[in-house]
Amino acid sequence: MRLEIEETSALAFDDGSPVRAASAIAPFGDGWLVAQDDATHAAWIRPATPTGHAPNTSPGGEAQSGRKARSDGKAQPDREARSDGKAQPDREARSDREARSDGKAQPDEEARSAGGAQPGTEPMSGEGVRSDVVRRSESITRVRVVDPVDGLETFAAVDGTKHLKPDFEAACAVPGGEVLLLGSGSSPTRMRASLVGPDGFRVADLRPLYLAVAAAFGLRADQLNLEGACLAGDRLRWFQRANLAAGAATASADIEVSALLAAIRGEITPDKINIDGVRRYDLGVAHGVALAVTDAVSLTDGRILVSAAAEDTPNAVDDGPVVASGLVLLGVDGEPQFFAEIPGAEKVEGLAVREMTTDGVRLLAVVDADDHETPSRRLTLHLHW
What we know:
The chain is mainly beta. 5% of the residues lie in helices and 43% in strands. The chain has two helices and 28 strands. It has helices at 207-217, 257-264, and strands spanning 2-10, 22-28, 31-36, 41-47, 67-69, 75-77, 79-81, 87-89, 124-125, 129-131, 138-144, 168-174, 178-183, 192-197, 200-205, 226-232, 235-240, 250-256, 275-281, 285-286, 289-290, 292-298, 304-311, 322-330, 336-341, 348-357, 360-367, 377-384. A six-stranded mixed beta sheet has the order 9-10-1-28-27-26, with no helix packed on it. The longest helix is centred in the middle third of the chain and has 11 residues, at 207-217. The protein is globular, with a radius of gyration of 20 Å.
């Protein structure tokens, strides 16, 4: 088995601000939805029009017209995130090189302090790997996935607001053209789901379900760290990221998708959702640190491919140094079949299947730099069987 990184690029919104803390990726409309675990909005990567901007239509074909649905189903004005994390009215994008009143350049150049290439260039790094490519053929815009918290749109430890973040760590496309975002469960505020669709989003508190999953794993609630999910037939396979230092093994549980969606829509209560198919995994050790699941995708033959990282951290909340990372193929029986290491110990947080190839699978992955000021990156991976 061989794994290669075909392309890597820094992610930035159309206004030049970085996509930060990318934690999951899933197909959405005519592109891809990237969750940011420290923000109230996700990043929608989609093809641009000939003018270089995203089409002004939702996946359903209706004009956005600057309004999105709130979690209660009502429309509200779209708001962009200011640099201080507070909401402000939506403003029309200014020209690419418009000067600010203080004479400094407006950060609408796609690659700023991230060190990315200027538009129209495609620098190469390594053996044919495209690095920090800025594509003019695509657009990255914000999609609200949860309402502001105490007037804040973004959250960070340096601001003392990390405990407020939604921490959506798993994203999964579900029937109806929607994407299901799931919190990690590592605190009560992170036990929510957001169902994002063409017409807006709906948020649900799923605390009874999270507590039941913790009990099924034999864990305390504060040991939960659910970081990946994928569809396995009519079930959602939900993965717990291991932290052996905290007494939590890599595990998964199966949740009935229809019941989960019904709970989010308010049709049933979360305690009515059945949990079954609990599995535990031994993914191995790299450099003395256990490999732990960070995301999962289903393959067409019924097997599941998971991204895994060996991160030296004492608990489910704090980050630590990543000493190795890679992809693990799980057989239909759930047993690990092989591990393919990712060059450079890239900490893949989100994984999505782009296409099956004649000799393997091509994937999109998002990498979180664990740095509040550093843009997340997207990798194109090709796994050869």
